C-alpha cells in the first residue's frame, strides 16, 4: 500500500456511552476533553456571531466538537432559551448517542434537560431544552405545527448527507423562519452544519447566509491506498483486518465500512472463526456489527470500553460515517462502497444497489480514525480510482421514489407541491410518477387544478410508514385482519428478525420448517411472531429458533405505536384468526404496485414495467413458482431479486385497481 498524506485535519471528542459515571475524576476528564476540542478556542467569537445571525452555515472538521458543543454554547449563553434548541441527525443511532453524550457533559439525566426523539422512541420531557432528533421526526412535528413554534433554534446537522428527509426539512424550516418573521412571532434561528458540503449552494439557498469556518483537528490521519484495484472488496477487507490484528497493539481498535446487514453478519462469522485458530500469543478479538436496524442496546455495545488485551473490530454500514465517536478507533478500513437506493420513474423501478462512495463520504470515513489519537485509514482502492469518485453524494431526493415525500408535503399544507422550494429539485418525471402512485393508492385527488389529500390520504400521512404500508393498515378492518397486518408491517419495519449462522445452516433450516408458510415470507413472519408471543417473548425460545430477541422486542415497540395511531383514527382492531387468505387479499389491495407475474419460461416479470426479476434465495418461496407474487423491495446484485414475497391471486390485484390492471394482467380480463 502507498501512503498519501491527508488534507490538514485535527481534533478530538468522545461519545462514550459506557455507563452514567458521575465520579469526580470522570467529570474532570470530560471537562478537560471539552476544553481541548478545537471549537473551544473559538467559543467567544462563535457565540457573538451566532447571537447576531438569523441563519448561519458552519463548516467544521469531523470531530471539531460542533455537534456536541454548539447546542450547549447557545443554551449557556441564553440564546434560544425561550423555547427548545433542536439538533437534527440523519440517523437514529447518532441522535441517541449524541443526546447521551451531551447529557453526560451537562451532568443531567437523559430525558430531562437533554432529550431525543427518533422513530418509535421518545425520551424527552417538558424540561427538555436541547433535543436531538432525526430529521424525519422533525418533519412529522411540522405536519402538526408548520411554524415549529416549540423551537427557537433549529440546527440542521450533517447537511452533506442530503437524505430525502433532510432536503425536505431545509425547505420547511426556511419557510417556517420566513412566516414567523411575517407574523411577528418569536424568531427562528437556523444553523446548518457539516464537515463537508457545497457551501456556495447552501449559502445561496439560505438567502446568502454567511459561512463560518471552524479550524482544527487535534490528531493527524495517515491515508493509505492500494497499489492495484481490488476485484473483491469483501476479501480485501478481511485480509486487512487480520494484517492489522497481527501487527498492531490490542488497544488499537478497527472500524470497517461495509455495505449492509448480510455482508456485516457474514464478515462477523468469518472474523470470529479465523480468530479462534490464530497462533497462541495473538491478541483476542471481539467483533461488533453496527447497522441501522440493529436494536439500540446492541448498537450501544460498540461504544463500551473493550476488555484488556482484546481488540475491538466494528463492522459498520455508513451509519458510522458521521456524528458518532466509537472509542479507541485507531484504524479505519474503507471499502469505498455503499448501498444506495436508485429509482427510475420511467420504469417505476426502485433498486437498492451497491455503488462507490463520494469523495465527501470517503473523507468522513477517514475522519473516524482520528477522533482520540493519531489514526490510519486504509482505502481499499487506488488513488487514481479515488480521483474519479464524485465530489459530493447525489442527493437522495434525486434518486428515490418520491411518494412518501409528496404525501408529507401535502400533509404540511404546502400550497403547490410542484413548486416547493427544494435545494436540489427532483426531476419532474419523478414528481409526476409519485403523484400517480398516490392517486392509485387513493391518497390524493385533483380539485380545482390542485392536488389535495383525500380523507384516506390524511390518515395515511399520520403513520410513520411508507404510504403503501399505511394503506394496508387502514384497509385491514375491511378484511378483518388488522391485528395480523399490524404485526406484519411492524416486522418489516425493523428489517430482519432472523439470525442465520452460516456454520449451522442445516440446523437453522430444520428448526424453521415449523414456521414456513407456502403462502410466502409475510405469512412466515406472522407465524414466527405468533409463536414468539405464545411463549411470552422468552429469550431461550429465540435462541433455540435462531430469532433475534432484541429485534423482536423492537417489533413489539413499533406495533404498540401503530396500535395507538390506529386507535386515534378509530381503526377497528379485528383479527382474521386462521384465515390467511384475507390477510393476503388485504396486502394485494395495498401493495399491488409491487406485483410480479410468472412467465412461460419460468422467470418473473413485474406487472407494471415488465422488468425481469427473480425470487431472492432467502425467501421461503425460492424453490416455488407461484403465478403471482407481491414483493417489498428489489435488490440488484448479479440480477434483480425480489425480497419479502407474498403469494396472491390475479383476481385480488384486479379488484384492487381495475383500471390499472385491466391492461396488465394476463390472468384476468377486464
Please explain how this structure is put together.
It is globular, with a radius of gyration of 25 Å. The relative contact order is 0.09. It is α/β, with parallel strands linked by helices and 670 residues long. The longest helix has 20 residues. It is 39% helix and 20% strand. Helix 14 packs across helix 16 and helix 18 packs across helix 20. It folds into four domains: 178 residues, Rossmann fold (3-Layer(aba) Sandwich), CATH 3.40.50.300; 176 residues, P-loop containing nucleotide triphosphate hydrolases (Rossmann fold, 3-Layer(aba) Sandwich), CATH 3.40.50; 45 residues, no CATH class; 72 residues, no CATH class.
What characterizes the major β-sheet? 8 strands, mixed
CATH superfamily (homologous) name of the largest domain: P-loop containing nucleotide triphosphate hydrolases
Strand sequence of the main sheet, in spatial order? 5-4-6-3-7-8-2-9
How many structural domains can be distinguished in the coordinates? 4
What gross morphology would you assign? globular
Discrete helix count: 25
Q: What is the helix content? A: 25-40%
Multimeric organization: single chain
Indicate the radius of gyration in whole angstroms. Answer: 25 Å
Q: Report the portion of residues in β strands.
A: 15-25%
Keywords:
670 residues; alpha/beta; Rossmann fold; 4 domains; eight-stranded mixed β-sheet; seven-stranded mixed β-sheet; 25 helices; 20% strand; globular; disordered N terminus
Amino acid at each position: 500500500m502507498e501512503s498519501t498524506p491527508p488534507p490538514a485535519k485535527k481534533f478530538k471528542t468522545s461519545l462514550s456511552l459506557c455507563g452514567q459515571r458521575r465520579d469526580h475524576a470522570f467529570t474532570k476528564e470530560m471537562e478537560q476533553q471539552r476544553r481541548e476540542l478545537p471549537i473551544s478556542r473559538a467559543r467567544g467569537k462563535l457565540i457573538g456571531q451566532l447571537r447576531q445571525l438569523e441563519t448561519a452555515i458552519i463548516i467544521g472538521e469531523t470531530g471539531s466538537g460542533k455537534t456536541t458543543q454548539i447546542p450547549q454554547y447557545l443554551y449557556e449563553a441564553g440564546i434560544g432559551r425561550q423555547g427548545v434548541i433542536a439538533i437534527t441527525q440523519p440517523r437514529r443511532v447518532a441522535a441517541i448517542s449524541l443526546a447521551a453524550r451531551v447529557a453526560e457533559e451537562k451532568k443531567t439525566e437523559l430525558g430531562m434537560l437533554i432529550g431525543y426523539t427518533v422513530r418509535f422512541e421518545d425520551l424527552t420531557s417538558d424540561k427538555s431544552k436541547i433535543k436531538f432528533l432525526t430529521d424525519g421526526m422533525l418533519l412529522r412535528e411540522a405536519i402538526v405545527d408548520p411554524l415549529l413554534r416549540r423551537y427557537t433554534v433549529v440546527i440542521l446537522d450533517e447537511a452533506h448527507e442530503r437524505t430525502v428527509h433532510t432536503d425536505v426539512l431545509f425547505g420547511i424550516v426556511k419557510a417556517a423562519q420566513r412566516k414567523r418573521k411575517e407574523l411577528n412571532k418569536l424568531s427562528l434561528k437556523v444553523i446548518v452544519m457539516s464537515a463537508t458540503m457545497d457551501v456556495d449552494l447552501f449559502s445561496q439557498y439560505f438567502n446568502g447566509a454567511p459561512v463560518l469556518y471552524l479550524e482544527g483537528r487535534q490528531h493527524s490521519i495517515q491515508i493509505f491506498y492500494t497499489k492495484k484495484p481490488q476485484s473483491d472488496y469483501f476479501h480485501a477487507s478481511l485480509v486487512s483486518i487480520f494484517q492489522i490484528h497481527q501487527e498492531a497493539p490490542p488497544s488499537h481498535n478497527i472500524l470497517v465500512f461495509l455495505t449492509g446487514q448480510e455482508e456485516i453478519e457474514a464478515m462477523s462469522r468469518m472474523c470470529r472463526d479465523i480468530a479462534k485458530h490464530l497462533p497462541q500469543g495473538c491478541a483476542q478479538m471481539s467483533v461488533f456489527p453496527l447497522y441501522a436496524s440493529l436494536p439500540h442496546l446492541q448498537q450501544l455495545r460498540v461504544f463500551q470500553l473493550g476488555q484488556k488485551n482484546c481488540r475491538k473490530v466494528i463492522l459498520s454500514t455508513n451509519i458510522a460515517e458521521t456524528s458518532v465517536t466509537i472509542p479507541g478507533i485507531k484504524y479505519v478500513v474503507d471499502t469505498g462502497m455503499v448501498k444506495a437506493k436508485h429509482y427510475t420513474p420511467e420504469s417505476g423501478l426502485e433498486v437498492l444497489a451497491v455503488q462507490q462512495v463520494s469523495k465527501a463520504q470517503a473523507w468522513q470515513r477517514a475522519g473516524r480514525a482520528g477522533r482520540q489519537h493519531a489514526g490510519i485509514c486504509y482505502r481499499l482502492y487506488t488513488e487514481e480510482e479515488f480521483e474519479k469518485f464524485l465530489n459530493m453524494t447525489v442527493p437522495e431526493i434525486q434518486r428515490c421514489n418520491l411518494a412518501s415525500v409528496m404525501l408529507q408535503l401535502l400533509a404540511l399544507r404546502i400550497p403547490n407541491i410542484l413548486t416547493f422550494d427544494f435545494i436540489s429539485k427532483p426531476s419532474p418525471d419523478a414528481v409526476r410518477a409519485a403523484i400517480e402512485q398516490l392517486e392509485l393508492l387513493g391518497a390524493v385527488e385533483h380539485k380545482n387544478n390542485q392536488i389535495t389529500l383525500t380523507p384516506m390520504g390524511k390518515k395515511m400521512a399520520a403513520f410513520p410508514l411508507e404510504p403503501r404500508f399505511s394503506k394496508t393498515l387502514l384497509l385491514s378492518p375491511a378484511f378483518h385482519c388488522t391485528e395480523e397486518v399490524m404485526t406484519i408491517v411492524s416486522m418489516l419495519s425493523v428489517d430482519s428478525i432472523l439470525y442465520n449462522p452460516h456454520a449451522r445452516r442445516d440446523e437453522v433450516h430444520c428448526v424453521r420448517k415449523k414456521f414456513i408458510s407456502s403462502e410466502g415470507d409475510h405469512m412466515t413472519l406472522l407465524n414466527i411472531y405468533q409463536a414468539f408471543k405464545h411463549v411470552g417473548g422468552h429469550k431461550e425460545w429465540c435462541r433455540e429458533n435462531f430469532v433475534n430477541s432484541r429485534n423482536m422486542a423492537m417489533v413489539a415497540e413499533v406495533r404498540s405505536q401503530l396500535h395507538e395511531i390506529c386507535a386515534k383514527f378509530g381503526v377497528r382492531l379485528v383479527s382474521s384468526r386462521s384465515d390467511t387468505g384475507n390477510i393476503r387479499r388485504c396486502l394485494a389491495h395495498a401493495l399491488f404496485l409491487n406485483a410480479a407475474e410468472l412467465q412461460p419460461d419460468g422467470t418473473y416479470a413485474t406487472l407494471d414495467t415488465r422488468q425481469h426479476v427473480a425470487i431472492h434465495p432467502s425467501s421461503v418461496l425460492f424453490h416455488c413458482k407461484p403465478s403471482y407474487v407481491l414483493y417489498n423491495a428489489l435488490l440488484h446484485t448479479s440480477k434483480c431479486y425480489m425480497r419479502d414475497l407474498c403469494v396472491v391471486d390475479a383476481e385480488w390485484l384486479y379488484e384492487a385497481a381495475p383500471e390499472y390492471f385491466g391492461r396488465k394482467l394476463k390472468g384476468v380480463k377486464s
